[in-house]
Amino acid sequence: MDAGNSPSERIYRIGCRAMNARFEIALWGGDAIHLRAAAEEALREVGLLEQQLSFYRDDSDIRTINTRAAYEPVPVDGRLFSLLQRAKQLSQETSGAFDITIAPLLGAWGFTGEGGRTPSNEEIDAARAITGMHLLELDFENLTVRFLAEGVTIDLGAIGKGYAVEQAAEILRDAEVGGALIHGGTSSVQAVGGQTDGTPWQVAIQDPLDAANHLAVVPLVDRSLSVSAVHGKFFTEGEARFGHVLDPRTGRPVQGALLAAVVCDSATDGDALSTALLTLGSPFLPELCDLRPNLGALVAVADDDGGLMVASSGIL
């Protein structure tokens, strides 16, 4: 444990590996035993959510849905059903730029495994035919999920870390910790309260072209920061570089925008909205900021000289 501003208030740090990322919690308070117990409970929740939401685990609820939902309605628990409802709403709010049915396109581009490949136009068209939230049917009365075509597949990778961070934060709030900062893979961050001296937590957004520099340092108190970038996973063919963030509407990798960041109350919403902003670019910025109260956002776009053009609204 590291000393805080007072002998009675200390910062405790703990982490785990989940969802193919490193999750870490820094939290402070006067009772070390209570802090450890709260942090461990929060990380257990992250582990349970990985088991439920993982696209890759054979025993996950998502795998069960993907295997059965084209042939019969699949019952799910209330919390997962609510998350799928939320994903559908976020897709509508972003005109389809965020879409959890994008998995067939990710598969066509080789991004569900190691590396990647450029698919043919025919392969892209075939994947697009089974992509779209209109193919996901949610039965509110029976809490079931059904696909309206064979081959439809959902992947919560663009929202799962934010949701896990948000649920972990709720556990820490319920435990009445003094304050905490939680991150999942550095792309999803949620603050619970502020630092020991009452000031906001300070979180840097890395320059996508120069890791030694920051585009901004964002103060957070009871808010989240979500960052989406094209450089996380990519492959190259000749001089062309193809990132793993795909535009569901075209079936092709996002072009132009290199990084998008969203500050809002919900890490779940922030994850989805930063993905949509990366896809839609700076023209979407004004509309995005109208979607949630006190939402701030930033988008960095490559210019013709190999540098960055940064547009932001309300993020600092």
User: What proportion of the residues is helical, as a percent range?
Assistant: 25-40%
Instruction: Work out the radius of gyration.
Output: 20 Å
The structure class reads alpha+beta
What is the count of β-strands?
A: 18
Ranges where pLDDT stays below 50 over 5 or more residues in a row are 1-7
Helix count, DSSP H or I runs of 4 or more residues: 8
Largest sheet data:
9 strands, antiparallel
Helix and strand sequence: EEEHHEHHHEEHEEEEEEEEEEHHEE
Strands of the biggest beta sheet: in what spatial order? 1-2-3-7-8-11-16-17-18
| Share of β-strand residues | 25-35%
Q: N-to-C terminal Cα separation, in Å?
A: 30 Å
Give the integer mean of the pLDDT values: 91
Shape verdict: globular
